[in-house]
Specification:
- The protein is mainly alpha-helical.
- The chain has one domain.
- The protein is 85% helix and 0% strand.
- It contains 5 helices and no strands.
- It is flat, with a radius of gyration of 18 Å.
- It starts with a helix and ends in a 9-residue tail after the last helix.
């Protein structure tokens, strides 16, 4: 697991830099900086609005006496997506927008739920509770 994280934290930034340099060759350095800043700026507002929407939906679920489990997963995705958008780079921006837009987030949520279910059933994922 540590090796995968190490690869992730070294390869992704290198790919981001490579992509930013290639884009800067075509449109210029200033335009590239403006693109990265604009995606971060737009991402902050999108993350805020989606976060508030998820909180409202969780409140509605609680008022009906339901557990807001789907809303908790949506909230985690909005948080992760917002963090991706604050990270400079276009690959992480794409991942962040995918997690923030409800339409794409729905499909990612289904995939993650299936993966978690398989991990729980196979015993690769355990939950321990202590009182």
């Amino acid at each position: 697991m540590l090796a995968k994280l190490l690869l992730l934290f070294t390869i992704v930034p290198l790919l981001e830099l490579f992509l930013l340099f290639r884009i800067a060759e075509y449109v210029g350095g200033g335009t590239t900086v403006i693109i990265v800043a604009a995606t971060g700026f737009f991402g902050v507002f999108l993350a805020k609005s989606q976060g508030l929407w998820v909180l409202k939906q969780a409140g509605w679920a609680l008022s009906r006496g339901e557990m807001p489990t789907h809303n908790l997963l949506d909230g985690a995705f909005v948080l992760i997506g917002g963090a991706f958008l604050l990270t400079p780079g276009l690959i992480t921006d794409l991942a962040g927008f995918m997690l923030l837009f409800p339409y794409s987030r729905k499909y990612i949520k289904v995939y993650v739920q299936k993966r978690l279910q398989k991990m729980l059933e196979s015993g690769k994922f355990n939950i321990y509770w202590r009182n």
